[in-house]
Every structure is written in structure tokens, then in C-alpha cells.
């Protein structure tokens, strides 16, 4: 499989398997049984909590069985100070500085770093947990929140004990993350990125600088629902921070993710 087909493969495999070919119960048996879905119309159970009383974010999360029809437009959100009530949502591309926007016009599908199996800095579905896929897993403990990505074997190990960012580590594709709790909301800040990835994939031109900083807020609404909000800061590239549209994820009917291998452009 080449990098150019990864996104299409993920959409087809997940969307067709989950939404068309296989009922959720059968899919759960194939991937490993997870939490049984609540009966239709029944209220969702409260969010589980860890030993320290904080909400437990653990689980396999996706946008639901209709993945192929949701979220792939992406790119719309709120630019601070840019836009008014009733106006079309501001896109991150509209927030690029003029010189950056001019440079972006020279880039196209073939320049997409994911063709070489390089991950995104954020995520094609506006969910950093997914990278270029549509499924991710969180394993939470009182000291660390570990985020596992189904594509590119990606992962983040996020400390939650108040330690600062690591100054001794070199910049990386997915940056360095630290987390903290704001009440029942988990706040994750990621920075120290390289400047040779894109924010998205699928040929959507979205470069960033080494000053990229992403702040995300995770809230487990109930046992089956996770809400994520994020703000992207990049003073070298953007005229204002970009507030990513809120993403609502659903607990999947399976409890393990699968490896999706990328071999790069051949």
C-alpha cells in the first residue's frame, strides 16, 4: 500500500465495514469485544472515573459507523477576531499570512508529506488522536494519558503530574505533549514540532512552522461520548489562532485498534 492510498483505504475500510457490510455486533467480535452498546433510547451511563477521581478517558474512539460521510470536509473553525455571528465559519487556510498563502499556491497533492508515511502534525479529521485515520485509542492512568493512533503506529505519552515540556528532546513530527486537569476537562498542550509536516493530509495544503502550538481540551460527557476542542497557534504562519470545530467522538464497539501499515510512495 502506498502513502497516497492510506486515507482512501481508511475511509473505505472503516466506513464500509462499519456502516454497510458488517453490523456493529459482528464488527466487535472481529476486532475484540468492547463495551456493549446501550439499548436504543436508553440514557448513557455516566463517565467512568479513575482511582484519583478524574474522568477516565480510556477507550477506542471514532466518529461512528458512518465515518465515510462525516468530518472529511474539515478545515472549518473559528479564527479569533475574524468573523461575526451568522458569517461563514473561518477556515485555517484563510488565516495564513499573505506571503504564506502565496507560497502555498505552489504546493499540491504530490507535496503531501504523508505520501512518504510522514504523519500529520494534527489530523485529517481535525482530531489529533486519529492522525490520517479514523480510529484511535486512549489508555488513561492518574500519571499518564497514552494516545494510540491506528495509522503510522503513532502514539503520545502525555504526563499529567505537572511536569513541564521536555527541553532536551529534539523537535518531532507530532511534537511534545504535557497535560493537566481543569476540573473534569483534560487539557493537553503540544509544541516542539518540526516544520516539515502538514497539519492535515489527503493533499490539503496546510504547512506550519516550528512555532506551532496546539492546545486541546478533552471532556468525557458520558460513558459513550468524548468531546474534543482544540486551538492551533502559529504566529509565524497565521494572522490569528484557529479554533478547531468541536469534535464529538463515540466509544467504539471494540476495545483494540488494528495496525494499518504505510509503505510510502513507491
Overview of this protein structure:
The chain has 266 residues and is α+β, with helices and mostly antiparallel strands. The protein has one domain (3-35, 46-251). It has 3 helices and 11 strands. Strands 1, 2, 3, 4, 5, 6, 7, 8, 9, 10 and 11 form an 11-stranded antiparallel beta sheet that branches. A hairpin with an 8-residue loop joins strand 10 (225-233) and strand 11. The longest helix has 16 residues, at 6-21. The chain is globular and about 50 Å long.
- Which bin fits the share of residues in helices? 10-25%
Main pleated sheet? 11 strands, antiparallel
Order of helices and strands: HHEEEHEEEEEEEE
Share in β-strands: 25-35%
* Low-confidence runs: 1-30, 66-75
Q: Give the N-terminus to C-terminus distance in angstroms.
A: 9 Å
Helix/strand-derived category reads: alpha+beta
Radius of gyration: 18 Å
> What's the helix count?
3
What is the arithmetic mean of pLDDT? 83
Morphology: globular
| Number of distinct beta strands | 11
Count of distinct structural domains:
1
